[in-house]
Design brief:
Number of helices of chain A: 2
Radius of gyration of chain A: 15 Å
Low-confidence stretches of chain A: none
Largest interface: A-C, 24 and 24 residues
Oligomer: homohexamer
Chain lengths: 126, 126, 126, 126, 126, 126
């Protein structure tokens, strides 16, 4: 099994609903350093799973739809907390269509690092 | 599948028995930077797998039972080498009970980084 | 010359005024991974510049006054952009008084990492 | 399941054939920071999966056959692009024999970091 | 004193002349992860030393003149080894003119990381 | 001004005397990831400040005199705490003689990372 991972980041504001979140119920924000890992059992005809430049461009495009925004105002998060887990899934789902066109990719893991001591991942098939 | 990982560290002394260890048979020590990764297929009602603050507190409590100690004197390692692998398993087993109470967690991976060039993991189900 | 550095982080929301900031004029946010480096030419009587635990506690206390907040609403940033540079200076200034009590510290550098590809520092004497 | 990972690096020149590679069709080069992760369900008699020193020596020996070379001139890559994926597989295959002798290892993942924002892995059984 | 640092990378081939280099006399290559740190005693009117986006764009442009090339064929290195130190100086000198236009910058440090265990810097005034 | 930095590590046991150290008064240990940064205003005849391989070998030799030991038993620390600051100075002083023979080096900074959230440095002239 092969995988290719590319890294980029987003900077957003948001707040959380639920007592479990304590002070994070207030409006605050985060930088998420985002790793998108594409995997598949075979390489394509050029000897690559997918082109790293194309994977980076796809990730940058998907993150461009989120960055420098207050997620509390985004329709994608209406009625749900934009937790690191939920964001990881959203990024993965938006990457999935584009990824299929880049090479023989069968799976995807998106990891969002919210600090040097905490991160979350979502893994799905294509 | 979702996962949440939190990072902390411990600083311990120990020695190893066995010729394979060479100079590490002498009393020495290590800082282990410890990553605890909790995973599960579903999120809980607040849109999270578990609260990052609660996961960090659990890890800190478990590591508090080990840090600033000579592991050669600890009952938990009587008759076994406190290798990075063995320590990773011990931390994972101690985390497992507490983790079950934090959210819909079904698996756990504990990774101990003993330097910038070597680390060990132990993976188990809950 | 000796130095001791400790690391912690804050998660905040803010917006910027000025065309140079482009999309960062919108309300967004950041995680800042914060390094506080204390320096001095001599060690104290215990053979340390300052206690790493005490330095970590001081940094955590100072960052506690900023984290999980919208900096646009904070009096400290009235009329100024809460840029990474300005925040680094504010953290350094707030650390300075406490640092003087911890040991023979004569200088301070505060670095705020806003992502894996950008960070800012402010250096001052005590 | 246990795993042990060790890190080393290689510095090589190469070029790629295929329009997808754009400017990387020119002769250029890379530092690959290489992580070799060995895994297995049980520990050996000394309480380790394998000796970290022995694993590091094995990785260093395998990388020694590649480093400070122009891969375009190496027989191992005749007719194929020495992409990060292909290199990860070659390193894994060369590690596999040696790894079997070091302990109860049943699987192997080799990851090559080509920069701070891109890396590739190859996973195989032993 | 304030500073802003941005990070990018280049991938190049080269060889060295001189017995001290041992196997690095052969044609090989490197990824350099490049940090450009701009410093100055005052902030500009927007409360920043310089815009991080503009600094990143300047660094990317300068590195674009080097990446995916064999430095042995570049006029800039005729008669000199393209060592990490020499490359750090070249990047710093090329950044210097552009940096002056971005804000009240008075100094510059360029660091090239050639692996996880070795890096070189060049520091100059503007 | 140029600099070259190389990284290695040591694993030691020790204890501290003094109430300020709290639980670190017990016998414990640490991995120190050690960065040795050599600096000078000019390059030597080969276009380098010093050879990275030679610098790495020098650092490895110096650290070899400390690693896998209980520093409480070492004569070098009789009557003093082997704090991170004191160790950084000792490593710097031992590197200084060797460094002078490697190239036109005029200064030295040694940094010991004791965890992902704390490190200490000692800077001296040659």
């Amino acid at each position: 099994m092969y995988s290719i991972t590319v890294r980029d980041h987003v900077m957003i504001a948001h707040s959380f609903r639920g007592e479990v979140f304590g002070p994070a119920q207030r409006l605050h924000g985060a930088t998420y350093v985002v790793d998108a890992a594409f995997s598949g059992p075979e390489l394509g005809p050029d000897g690559i799973l997918l082109d790293i430049g194309a994977a980076s461009a796809l990730l940058h495009e998907v993150l461009g739809g989120l960055t420098y925004r207050n997620l509390d105002d985004e329709a994608a998060f209406a009625g749900v907390n934009s937790s690191t887990e939920v964001l990881a899934r959203l990024v993965a789902d938006r990457l999935a269509d584009g990824a299929a066109g880049l090479g023989p990719v069968t799976g995807l893991v998106v990891t969002l690092h919210e600090s040097h001591v905490a991160w979350a991942s979502y893994r799905r098939d294509l």
